Amino acid sequence: MSLTAETKNWMVDYGRYCNRKYRSDMEQIFAFVDEAGKKLNRQIKDLDDIRIAMASLKEIREHQISIDFKVGPTEVNTALGLSYSLVVDGPLSFHTNAHSVNKNKHFQ
């Protein structure tokens, strides 16, 4: 196997690993946001509803820093994938030259 082919295979493997890791992080964030959104979108009828909303806001504040620390590396990872054209089979594909997202492949 040539060095070029081996390097390309390594880049694809590294892209898959990063995608799994950062996808997992983002799915956790989305689940947290969805859960908090459900609590905050409830209609407030009494004092218990206010307590639930306030507890949800407190939980959001407590998780804000950890979410920020997860989003930053995810953005950097996506930028690296775009700049090095790490396209791997999956649900989305990032193309640097067209600056568009194709829903057939994904940097994963």
If you had to describe this structure to a student in words, what would you say it looks like?
The chain has 108 residues and is mostly helical. The protein has one domain (3-106). Helix content is 69%, strand content 9%. A two-stranded antiparallel ribbon has the order 1-4. Strand 2 and strand 3 (100-102) form a beta hairpin. Helix 1 (3-40) runs antiparallel to helix 2 (47-83). The longest helix has 38 residues, at 3-40. The two termini are 24 Å apart. Residues 89-108 have low confidence and may be disordered.
Low-pLDDT ranges: 89-108
Largest sheet: 2 strands, antiparallel
Assembly type of the shown chains? single chain
The helix tally amounts to 2
Summarize the structure.
This protein has 108 residues and is mainly α. Helix content is 69%, strand content 9%.
Main attributes?
108 residues, mainly alpha, two-stranded antiparallel sheet, 2 helices, 4 strands, 9% strand, rod-shaped, disordered C terminus
Question: Which helices and strands, and how do they pair?
Answer:
Blueprint: H1 3-40, H2 47-83, E1 88-89, E2 93-95, E3 100-102, E4 105-106
Antiparallel strand pairs: 1-4, 2-3
Helix pairs in contact: 1-2
